[in-house]
Amino acid sequence: MPPMNKCVLSALCFLCFSSFAWTQETFQFTTAKKKQRLTFELINNLIVIPVRVNGVELSFLLDSGVNSTLLFNNSNVNQLHFEDKTAFQVTGFGRDDSVTAYLTEGNTIQIKNIAATAESILLLEEDNFEFSKRMGAQIDGIIGYRLLEPFLVTINYSEGFLLFQSPEHRSAKKCRTCDVLDLELFQNKPYISVAVQQNDTLHIKGNALLDTGSSDALWLLEKKNDVVAIPPYFDDFLGRGINGNIYGKRGKIKELSFGKSRFSGVKVAYPDPSAFDKIRIIENRIGSVGGELLKRYKVIFDYRHKKLYLKPNRLTHAPFYYNMSGLSIQHKGMALNKIRTTNAFGVQQNGEDYGTAIEIHLNPQFRIELIPVYEIFEVRECSPAAQAGVRKGDELYRINGRKISLMKLNQINELFQKKPGHPIRMEVRRNGKILKYNFVLQPLF
């Protein structure tokens, strides 16, 4: 089976599916030291961690919105040689039909000095997911509740590390500046109470899923508990769920509050109701809080005591900017690039007839390297990029003078989320030709 090229989501990685009851051992510390620090990579507001499955090193998303551990059946995962598998139908966000997943049992999952044996994993066919394309990084699986539940888990977004401690340690109590919220667990997923003021007159209160697997700030579910999309908004691609692409509307709300926190002008996405009409929604749920908002805190999950601790960081009061270019970018693959390095030379002294004359022979030397290729897979209608002439399928070559081959996908996306008025100079490759386009990021509302 060929390797799965993935990406992330221009906006999010959101999974939700039915719970399965399997008997599994809990994750535990493998040494006497009951503490583990783990560095993570933050890509498009999503947490990527190294995980060993049956001795094979893989890359996983940490997603508090999933109950069971998932693997994508790509070339990395094929090294595990799963044989005994039971088929299940899995349903989640997206408008497509349910997908087939295979239950594999008796697996060992290890994350530094944390491990669990006899773990059950759902193996999904790779064609059903395109996370690596949208993230620009290899993603082999997703882990959530199974890893979060046994520990006191600190997510330090600003410094890029996780800290796992025994829940009896209760070090969160020492966080005097933390806001402490009650957690409600439903199907092993964490919820908090939030209040949303969509405009001057429309106020909604309800439960929101705490979803580290969503790169957006806030989702509101239309037609659930009086949620309606309030203009101004625009239609957009929101991401990819377990059952296909998710489209919907994007806008801003006047205020979001939970605990002691108050946010104004928060970005909001309203997924098309057809994307979640096949899944069970907890009573009084109105939406989800994702990575773009959670990264503004040091977050401490305490599932055992049903508590959430939030400590503000330097990003807490930063403004919420949209991708104002209108472009969604994905990783297309790798290409060979021939780079001239130096001129190797040889020196030869001529014979006596030429006195002391010297001939220098220059031989150019090259190196071959693999470079990433990024392509445009969505162009929002009437956006600055669309009006400039950029098209779906164009390959990026340069942005603002920087070679795309030297950039990561999340760095490219960050260029499109600046203040209004920020200029973009873009070079793209189309049908073998390099074309240049200039546009300015414009406010959407």
Describe the structure.
The structure is a single chain. This protein has 445 residues and is mainly β. It has three domains: 6-146, Cathepsin D, subunit A, domain 1, CATH 2.40.70; 171-312, Acid Proteases (Cathepsin D, subunit A, domain 1), CATH 2.40.70.10; 327-343 and 369-440, Roll (Pdz3 Domain), CATH 2.30.42. Helices cover 6% and strands 50% of the residues. The chain has helices spanning 131-135, 145-148, 291-294, 384-388, 409-415, and strands spanning 6-7, 28-29, 35-39, 41-43, 46-53, 56-62, 70-73, 86-90, 99-111, 114-125, 141-143, 152-156, 161-165, 179-182, 184-186, 189-197, 203-210, 218-220, 233-241, 244-258, 261-271, 285-289, 297-302, 307-312, 327-349, 358-379, 395-399, 402-403, 423-430, 433-440. The strands form five sheets. Strands 15, 16, 17, 18, 19, 20, 21 and 22 form an eight-stranded mixed sheet that branches. The radius of gyration is 25 Å and the shape is globular. Residues 1-21 have low confidence and may be disordered.
